Amino acid sequence: GGFGITYMAVSEIPDGNISHEVSYTIKEFFMEDVCMRQDNGSITATVTSKSNMEECKRDFLKEAERLRDIGFHRGIVPVNEVFSENNTVYYVMEYLGTQNLKQYVAVKGGKLD
User: Fold this and answer.
1) What percent of the chain has pLDDT over 70?
2) What is the three-state SS of the chain?
3) What is the CA radius of gyration of the chain?
4) What's phi and psi for 5, nearest 5 deg?
């Protein structure tokens, strides 16, 4: 979308002597037409767009925190972690696979549960 980049990340989670590979979705605040990535990975905006970027970043953070605070709800993907780094905000969620919403609805018979 216009306000973020979505990544898939994989981590090894130890369970005693056994490791499990777990996939996560990471959403990064990055306004497509406003943000620029510096060589060190940090994001910035032009002087004319900086206040708009900061306001939108605060809104993104509030949304992420609200989603995290909801906890488990069968209609919302749980947010596991929210953090700031590289002058931006990220949140980590369960990875639900490669199916988009249109495909999901088609498989489920045309209705969302």
Assistant:
1) 96
2) CCCEEEEEEEEEEEECCEEEEEEEEEEEECCCCCEEECCCCCEEECCCCHHHHHHHHHHHHHHHHHHHHHCCECCECCEEEEEEECCEEEEEEECCCCCCHHHHHHHCCCCCC
3) 17
4) -115, 135
- Nearest residue to 23 (alpha-carbon basis) of 34, 35, 42, 9: 9
Cα separation, 47 vs 38, in Å, equals 15
Query: Which phi-psi region, left, alpha or beta, contains residue 71 (left: φ > 0; alpha: ψ -120 to 50)?
Result: left
**Structure token digits, residue 40:** 């060190």
pTM (2 d.p.):
0.81
